[in-house]
Write a structure and sequence with these properties.
This protein is mostly helical. It has one domain: Up-down Bundle (Growth Hormone, Chain: A), CATH 1.20.1250.20. It has 16 helices and no strands.
Protein backbone atom coordinates (compact mmCIF):
# COMPACT_ATOMS: atom_id res chain seq x y z
CA UNK A 1 0.00 0.00 0.00
CA UNK A 2 2.80 2.42 0.78
CA UNK A 3 4.42 1.52 -2.56
CA UNK A 4 1.17 2.28 -4.43
CA UNK A 5 0.66 5.54 -2.50
CA UNK A 6 4.11 6.85 -3.32
CA UNK A 7 3.87 5.57 -6.90
CA UNK A 8 0.92 7.92 -7.35
CA UNK A 9 2.85 10.78 -5.76
CA UNK A 10 5.87 10.13 -7.98
CA UNK A 11 3.75 10.19 -11.14
CA UNK A 12 2.08 13.41 -9.99
CA UNK A 13 5.37 15.24 -9.39
CA UNK A 14 6.82 14.21 -12.75
CA UNK A 15 3.61 14.77 -14.71
CA UNK A 16 2.81 18.20 -13.26
CA UNK A 17 4.33 20.19 -16.16
CA UNK A 18 2.36 18.08 -18.66
CA UNK A 19 -0.83 18.46 -16.59
CA UNK A 20 -0.23 22.22 -16.38
CA UNK A 21 0.19 22.53 -20.13
CA UNK A 22 -2.69 20.18 -20.94
CA UNK A 23 -5.25 21.97 -18.76
CA UNK A 24 -3.71 25.47 -18.91
CA UNK A 25 -3.13 25.82 -15.17
CA UNK A 26 -1.56 28.86 -13.48
CA UNK A 27 0.99 28.78 -10.65
CA UNK A 28 -1.78 29.72 -8.20
CA UNK A 29 -3.88 26.80 -9.42
CA UNK A 30 -0.91 24.47 -8.97
CA UNK A 31 -0.66 25.71 -5.40
CA UNK A 32 -4.38 25.06 -4.90
CA UNK A 33 -4.00 21.52 -6.25
CA UNK A 34 -1.39 20.87 -3.59
CA UNK A 35 -3.02 22.73 -0.67
CA UNK A 36 -6.79 22.31 -0.92
CA UNK A 37 -6.68 18.48 -0.89
CA UNK A 38 -4.35 18.58 2.11
CA UNK A 39 -6.66 20.95 3.99
CA UNK A 40 -9.94 19.19 3.20
CA UNK A 41 -8.30 15.79 3.49
CA UNK A 42 -7.03 16.70 6.94
CA UNK A 43 -10.57 17.51 8.09
CA UNK A 44 -11.93 14.23 6.71
CA UNK A 45 -9.06 12.23 8.23
CA UNK A 46 -9.58 13.49 11.80
CA UNK A 47 -11.91 10.59 12.77
CA UNK A 48 -9.27 8.07 11.68
CA UNK A 49 -7.61 8.22 15.10
CA UNK A 50 -10.78 6.86 16.68
CA UNK A 51 -11.11 4.20 13.99
CA UNK A 52 -7.51 3.19 14.57
CA UNK A 53 -8.43 2.05 18.08
CA UNK A 54 -10.66 -0.81 16.93
CA UNK A 55 -9.54 -3.77 14.80
CA UNK A 56 -12.85 -4.31 12.95
CA UNK A 57 -13.39 -0.63 12.17
CA UNK A 58 -9.77 -0.27 11.17
CA UNK A 59 -10.07 -3.03 8.57
CA UNK A 60 -13.34 -1.60 7.22
CA UNK A 61 -11.74 1.85 6.93
CA UNK A 62 -8.69 0.43 5.15
CA UNK A 63 -10.79 -1.48 2.61
CA UNK A 64 -13.21 1.39 2.04
CA UNK A 65 -10.36 3.85 1.70
CA UNK A 66 -8.73 1.54 -0.84
CA UNK A 67 -11.81 1.62 -3.06
CA UNK A 68 -11.88 5.43 -2.99
CA UNK A 69 -8.11 5.45 -3.56
CA UNK A 70 -8.50 3.58 -6.87
CA UNK A 71 -11.52 5.64 -7.97
CA UNK A 72 -9.72 8.92 -7.22
CA UNK A 73 -6.75 7.92 -9.39
CA UNK A 74 -9.13 7.06 -12.23
CA UNK A 75 -10.81 10.43 -11.68
CA UNK A 76 -7.49 12.22 -12.17
CA UNK A 77 -6.92 10.31 -15.40
CA UNK A 78 -10.29 11.40 -16.83
CA UNK A 79 -10.30 14.99 -15.49
CA UNK A 80 -11.09 17.50 -18.23
CA UNK A 81 -10.64 20.75 -16.33
CA UNK A 82 -9.22 22.25 -13.14
CA UNK A 83 -12.38 21.67 -11.06
CA UNK A 84 -12.57 17.97 -11.94
CA UNK A 85 -8.86 17.51 -11.28
CA UNK A 86 -9.10 19.28 -7.92
CA UNK A 87 -12.09 17.14 -6.92
CA UNK A 88 -10.21 13.93 -7.71
CA UNK A 89 -7.20 15.06 -5.64
CA UNK A 90 -9.48 16.05 -2.74
CA UNK A 91 -10.97 12.54 -2.70
CA UNK A 92 -7.51 10.97 -2.99
CA UNK A 93 -6.07 12.45 0.20
CA UNK A 94 -8.56 11.13 2.79
CA UNK A 95 -8.70 7.85 0.85
CA UNK A 96 -4.94 7.60 1.21
CA UNK A 97 -5.27 8.40 4.91
CA UNK A 98 -7.63 5.49 5.47
CA UNK A 99 -5.86 3.08 3.13
CA UNK A 100 -2.27 3.83 4.13
CA UNK A 101 -2.12 5.71 7.46
CA UNK A 102 -4.14 3.11 9.35
CA UNK A 103 -1.86 0.38 8.02
CA UNK A 104 1.12 2.37 9.25
CA UNK A 105 -0.51 2.58 12.69
CA UNK A 106 -0.89 -1.20 12.72
CA UNK A 107 2.81 -1.55 11.91
CA UNK A 108 3.73 0.70 14.82
CA UNK A 109 1.49 -1.28 17.18
CA UNK A 110 3.09 -4.55 16.07
CA UNK A 111 6.54 -3.66 17.50
CA UNK A 112 6.55 -0.61 19.82
CA UNK A 113 10.23 -1.07 20.68
CA UNK A 114 11.44 -0.60 17.08
CA UNK A 115 9.48 2.42 15.85
CA UNK A 116 12.39 4.11 14.07
CA UNK A 117 13.60 0.96 12.33
CA UNK A 118 10.06 -0.04 11.31
CA UNK A 119 9.43 3.46 9.94
CA UNK A 120 12.73 3.34 8.05
CA UNK A 121 11.68 0.13 6.32
CA UNK A 122 8.19 1.49 5.66
CA UNK A 123 9.69 4.61 4.11
CA UNK A 124 12.05 2.49 2.02
CA UNK A 125 9.06 0.72 0.46
CA UNK A 126 7.46 4.08 -0.23
CA UNK A 127 10.63 5.46 -1.76
CA UNK A 128 10.73 2.51 -4.14
CA UNK A 129 7.25 3.45 -5.30
CA UNK A 130 8.19 7.11 -5.58
CA UNK A 131 11.15 6.24 -7.81
CA UNK A 132 8.99 4.00 -9.98
CA UNK A 133 6.45 6.81 -10.52
CA UNK A 134 8.53 9.08 -12.78
CA UNK A 135 10.01 6.04 -14.52
CA UNK A 136 6.48 4.84 -15.24
CA UNK A 137 5.66 8.23 -16.77
CA UNK A 138 8.83 8.22 -18.88
CA UNK A 139 7.99 4.71 -20.13
CA UNK A 140 4.42 5.74 -20.98
CA UNK A 141 5.63 8.86 -22.82
CA UNK A 142 8.20 6.81 -24.74
CA UNK A 143 5.42 4.41 -25.77
CA UNK A 144 3.37 7.28 -27.17
CA UNK A 145 0.97 7.67 -24.24
CA UNK A 146 0.34 10.60 -21.94
CA UNK A 147 0.02 11.48 -18.28
CA UNK A 148 -3.57 10.19 -18.20
CA UNK A 149 -2.40 6.71 -19.23
CA UNK A 150 0.21 6.79 -16.45
CA UNK A 151 -2.49 7.53 -13.86
CA UNK A 152 -4.58 4.61 -15.13
CA UNK A 153 -1.52 2.41 -14.64
CA UNK A 154 -1.18 3.61 -11.05
CA UNK A 155 -4.88 2.89 -10.46
CA UNK A 156 -4.28 -0.69 -11.63
CA UNK A 157 -1.37 -1.11 -9.20
CA UNK A 158 -3.48 0.30 -6.36
CA UNK A 159 -6.26 -2.15 -7.21
CA UNK A 160 -3.77 -5.02 -6.89
CA UNK A 161 -2.67 -3.69 -3.49
CA UNK A 162 -6.32 -3.58 -2.38
CA UNK A 163 -6.82 -7.18 -3.48
CA UNK A 164 -3.78 -8.13 -1.41
CA UNK A 165 -5.32 -6.52 1.67
CA UNK A 166 -8.60 -8.32 1.09
CA UNK A 167 -6.81 -11.65 0.69
CA UNK A 168 -5.06 -11.34 4.06
CA UNK A 169 -8.33 -11.95 5.89
CA UNK A 170 -9.98 -10.25 8.83
CA UNK A 171 -7.86 -8.65 11.54
CA UNK A 172 -8.63 -9.75 15.05
CA UNK A 173 -10.87 -7.38 16.91
CA UNK A 174 -9.08 -5.47 19.59
CA UNK A 175 -5.64 -5.94 17.99
CA UNK A 176 -5.21 -2.19 17.84
CA UNK A 177 -4.75 0.23 20.69
CA UNK A 178 -7.75 1.63 22.54
CA UNK A 179 -9.62 4.56 21.01
CA UNK A 180 -8.43 7.91 22.37
CA UNK A 181 -10.64 10.24 24.43
CA UNK A 182 -10.76 14.02 23.96
CA UNK A 183 -8.71 14.51 27.13
CA UNK A 184 -6.11 12.08 25.81
CA UNK A 185 -5.85 14.05 22.56
CA UNK A 186 -5.35 17.36 24.38
CA UNK A 187 -2.61 15.94 26.62
CA UNK A 188 -0.94 14.17 23.71
CA UNK A 189 -0.98 17.31 21.56
CA UNK A 190 1.06 19.09 24.21
CA UNK A 191 3.59 16.25 24.45
CA UNK A 192 3.89 15.72 20.69
CA UNK A 193 3.67 19.34 19.54
CA UNK A 194 7.36 19.67 18.70
CA UNK A 195 7.39 16.59 16.48
CA UNK A 196 4.21 17.64 14.68
CA UNK A 197 5.67 21.07 13.89
CA UNK A 198 8.93 19.55 12.70
CA UNK A 199 7.11 17.02 10.51
CA UNK A 200 5.18 19.77 8.72
CA UNK A 201 8.23 22.02 8.41
CA UNK A 202 10.38 19.18 7.04
CA UNK A 203 7.68 18.34 4.52
CA UNK A 204 8.26 21.71 2.82
CA UNK A 205 11.67 20.50 1.66
CA UNK A 206 10.44 16.97 0.86
CA UNK A 207 6.97 16.59 -0.68
CA UNK A 208 6.30 20.28 -1.33
CA UNK A 209 9.64 20.75 -3.09
CA UNK A 210 9.07 17.57 -5.10
CA UNK A 211 5.74 18.98 -6.24
CA UNK A 212 7.41 22.10 -7.66
CA UNK A 213 10.83 20.85 -8.73
CA UNK A 214 9.77 19.66 -12.20
CA UNK A 215 8.02 22.97 -12.89
CA UNK A 216 11.12 24.83 -11.64
CA UNK A 217 13.41 22.87 -13.93
CA UNK A 218 11.14 23.48 -16.93
CA UNK A 219 10.24 27.14 -16.36
CA UNK A 220 13.44 28.45 -14.75
CA UNK A 221 16.27 26.14 -15.83
CA UNK A 222 14.61 25.65 -19.26
CA UNK A 223 14.78 21.86 -19.39
CA UNK A 224 12.25 19.86 -21.41
CA UNK A 225 9.35 18.12 -19.60
CA UNK A 226 10.89 14.72 -20.38
CA UNK A 227 14.25 15.74 -18.89
CA UNK A 228 12.46 17.24 -15.88
CA UNK A 229 10.69 13.92 -15.35
CA UNK A 230 14.08 12.17 -15.38
CA UNK A 231 15.34 14.76 -12.87
CA UNK A 232 12.45 13.96 -10.54
CA UNK A 233 13.35 10.28 -10.91
CA UNK A 234 16.94 11.14 -9.93
CA UNK A 235 15.67 13.01 -6.89
CA UNK A 236 13.49 10.13 -5.81
CA UNK A 237 16.19 7.59 -6.58
CA UNK A 238 18.58 9.46 -4.31
CA UNK A 239 15.88 9.51 -1.63
CA UNK A 240 15.55 5.75 -2.01
CA UNK A 241 19.30 5.41 -1.49
CA UNK A 242 19.05 7.64 1.59
CA UNK A 243 16.29 5.46 3.02
CA UNK A 244 18.29 2.29 2.37
CA UNK A 245 21.34 3.74 4.11
CA UNK A 246 19.17 4.88 7.02
CA UNK A 247 18.02 1.29 7.66
CA UNK A 248 21.67 0.31 8.11
CA UNK A 249 22.80 3.43 9.96
CA UNK A 250 20.12 3.15 12.66
CA UNK A 251 21.73 -0.08 13.83
CA UNK A 252 24.76 1.94 15.02
CA UNK A 253 23.89 5.66 15.19
CA UNK A 254 21.34 7.44 17.40
CA UNK A 255 18.30 8.94 15.68
CA UNK A 256 18.99 12.47 16.92
CA UNK A 257 22.54 12.38 15.56
CA UNK A 258 21.21 11.41 12.13
CA UNK A 259 18.69 14.27 12.21
CA UNK A 260 21.33 16.85 13.14
CA UNK A 261 23.81 15.64 10.52
CA UNK A 262 21.31 15.60 7.67
CA UNK A 263 19.94 19.01 8.66
CA UNK A 264 23.43 20.54 8.43
CA UNK A 265 23.96 18.88 5.05
CA UNK A 266 20.61 20.16 3.74
CA UNK A 267 21.42 23.69 4.93
CA UNK A 268 24.36 23.66 2.51
CA UNK A 269 22.95 21.58 -0.35
CA UNK A 270 19.61 23.35 -0.87
CA UNK A 271 21.10 26.82 -1.52
CA UNK A 272 23.64 25.11 -3.78
CA UNK A 273 20.80 23.56 -5.80
CA UNK A 274 19.19 26.95 -6.33
CA UNK A 275 22.36 28.97 -6.99
CA UNK A 276 24.78 26.72 -8.88
CA UNK A 277 24.65 27.35 -12.66
CA UNK A 278 24.06 24.61 -15.21
CA UNK A 279 21.69 21.65 -15.32
CA UNK A 280 24.21 18.94 -14.37
CA UNK A 281 25.50 20.64 -11.17
CA UNK A 282 21.93 21.35 -10.12
CA UNK A 283 20.99 17.71 -10.52
CA UNK A 284 23.99 16.59 -8.48
CA UNK A 285 23.06 19.01 -5.67
CA UNK A 286 19.43 17.87 -5.90
CA UNK A 287 20.43 14.21 -5.60
CA UNK A 288 22.57 14.81 -2.50
CA UNK A 289 19.90 16.99 -0.94
CA UNK A 290 17.26 14.32 -1.57
CA UNK A 291 19.35 11.61 0.10
CA UNK A 292 19.78 13.79 3.18
CA UNK A 293 16.18 14.92 3.59
CA UNK A 294 14.76 11.41 2.95
CA UNK A 295 15.70 10.50 6.51
CA UNK A 296 13.55 13.19 8.10
CA UNK A 297 10.05 11.75 7.77
CA UNK A 298 10.69 8.25 9.18
CA UNK A 299 12.75 9.59 12.09
CA UNK A 300 10.31 12.37 13.02
CA UNK A 301 7.26 10.16 12.56
CA UNK A 302 8.87 7.47 14.72
CA UNK A 303 9.45 10.10 17.42
CA UNK A 304 5.77 11.01 17.25
CA UNK A 305 4.71 7.36 17.62
CA UNK A 306 7.20 7.05 20.48
CA UNK A 307 5.51 9.94 22.28
CA UNK A 308 1.82 9.02 21.93
CA UNK A 309 -0.26 5.87 21.16
CA UNK A 310 -0.89 5.12 17.49
CA UNK A 311 -4.59 6.19 17.41
CA UNK A 312 -3.62 9.55 18.86
CA UNK A 313 -0.69 9.86 16.46
CA UNK A 314 -3.00 9.31 13.46
CA UNK A 315 -5.45 11.94 14.69
CA UNK A 316 -2.78 14.51 15.53
CA UNK A 317 -1.00 13.97 12.20
CA UNK A 318 -4.27 14.65 10.36
CA UNK A 319 -4.89 17.77 12.42
CA UNK A 320 -1.36 19.05 11.82
CA UNK A 321 -1.82 18.43 8.11
CA UNK A 322 -4.46 21.17 8.08
CA UNK A 323 -1.81 23.75 8.88
CA UNK A 324 0.81 22.04 6.73
CA UNK A 325 -1.54 22.19 3.76
CA UNK A 326 -0.97 25.94 3.58
CA UNK A 327 2.66 25.36 2.60
CA UNK A 328 2.15 24.44 -1.08
CA UNK A 329 -0.43 27.21 -1.45
CA UNK A 330 2.00 29.73 0.02
CA UNK A 331 4.71 28.65 -2.42
CA UNK A 332 2.28 28.85 -5.35
CA UNK A 333 1.00 32.30 -4.40
CA UNK A 334 4.54 33.57 -3.75
CA UNK A 335 5.66 32.20 -7.12
CA UNK A 336 2.85 34.08 -8.85
CA UNK A 337 3.81 37.28 -7.02
CA UNK A 338 7.63 37.32 -7.02
CA UNK A 339 8.64 34.40 -9.25
CA UNK A 340 9.27 30.74 -8.58
CA UNK A 341 13.03 31.08 -7.78
CA UNK A 342 12.37 33.54 -4.95
CA UNK A 343 9.42 31.52 -3.67
CA UNK A 344 11.59 28.41 -3.40
CA UNK A 345 14.42 30.39 -1.79
CA UNK A 346 12.29 30.80 1.34
CA UNK A 347 12.51 27.06 1.97
CA UNK A 348 16.18 27.49 2.90
CA UNK A 349 14.98 28.09 6.48
CA UNK A 350 13.64 24.52 6.79
CA UNK A 351 16.98 22.79 7.59
CA UNK A 352 17.62 25.40 10.28
CA UNK A 353 14.27 24.59 11.88
CA UNK A 354 14.93 20.84 11.77
CA UNK A 355 18.39 21.30 13.28
CA UNK A 356 17.05 23.48 16.09
CA UNK A 357 14.09 21.22 16.82
CA UNK A 358 16.01 17.95 16.73
CA UNK A 359 18.61 19.18 19.15
CA UNK A 360 16.36 20.72 21.80
CA UNK A 361 13.89 19.49 24.35
CA UNK A 362 13.45 16.13 26.04
CA UNK A 363 13.72 12.86 24.21
CA UNK A 364 10.39 11.03 23.79
CA UNK A 365 9.92 7.56 25.20
CA UNK A 366 11.31 4.80 22.98
Amino acid sequence: MEFADELADGVKGAALPSIQQSLGLSYAQLGLLASVPLLLGGVLELPLGVLAGDGRLRRAAVLGGGVLFVLALAGVAFAGNFAELLTAFVVFFPASGAFVSLTQASLMDADPERHARSMARWDLAGSAGAVAGPLLLVAVLAAGGGWRDAYLGVAAVAALAWCGVLARGRQQAGSAAESPRIADLVAAARAAGRWLVLLEAANLLVDVLTGFVAVYLVDVVRLSPAVAAVAVAIRLGAALAGDAVLVLVLERVAERVVLRTTAVAAAVLYPAFLLVPGAAPKLVALALLSAATATWYPLLQARLYGTVPSPVAVTLTSAAGLAGGLGPLAVGVAAAAVGLPWALAGLALVPVAVLAGAGSGPTPRE
